[in-house]
Specification:
This protein is mainly α. The chain has helices at residues 2-18, 56-81, 85-96, 98-107, 115-134, 140-160, and strands spanning 50-51, 161-162. The protein has a two-stranded parallel ribbon with strand order 1-2.
Length: 163
């Protein structure tokens, strides 16, 4: 019982880390460009990420996709906190896995992305599929490890590219 409470605590902490409730005051760095840097990076370090140089309409679509991914992560963590493993697995597969990849490709038809971006996108979808596959085991340690890999795949892309 104590392990279950601890697991719920960890999952809810993850949800709070991923989502920022409306109305919450968020500290803004004095240097607006600092938002382009990772935690612990020097404010004087130039932003070395590659610009995707997308048309404004394509930027809107890409931002929509990223928001959908973030919402899916929140839904997965929330479902895991409720011990609703079926929902968590379905969301991981349908909203982050290859099914979502194919839907996004239809939406972004004709847009050319660099090969490195495409490779990172595939790594993200592969990590999400691995997460979807492990969730039905109900073993929290491997589930959290796969969730971690999925989030790292997101971060790898955000660290490499900017709009």
């Amino acid at each position: 019982m104590a392990r279950m409470r601890f697991t719920r605590f960890i999952l809810m902490a993850a949800v709070l880390t991923v989502t920022v409730p409306t109305g919450m005051v968020v500290a803004r760095p004095a240097d607006p460009a600092a938002t382009d840097r990772g935690i612990g990076e020097s404010p004087t370090k130039p932003d070395s990420r590659i610009s995707l140089k997308l048309d404004p309409q394509v930027q809107v679509m890409l931002k929509q996709t990223m928001r959908e991914h973030l919402e899916a992560i929140e839904m997965i963590v929330s479902a895991l906190a409720r011990e609703d493993y079926k929902t968590a697995s379905v969301v991981a597969h349908e909203e982050l896995g290859f099914l979502k990849h194919h839907q996004v490709m239809q939406r972004e038809r004709g847009v050319s992305f660099p090969k490195r971006y495409q490779d990172l996108a595939m790594a993200h979808h592969q990590a999400a599929e691995a997460l979807a596959d492990i969730i039905p085991t109900r073993e929290m340690k491997p589930i959290l490890q796969k969730l971690d890999l999925t989030l790292k795949a997101c971060l790898d892309c955000h660290r490499a590219f900017k709009l």
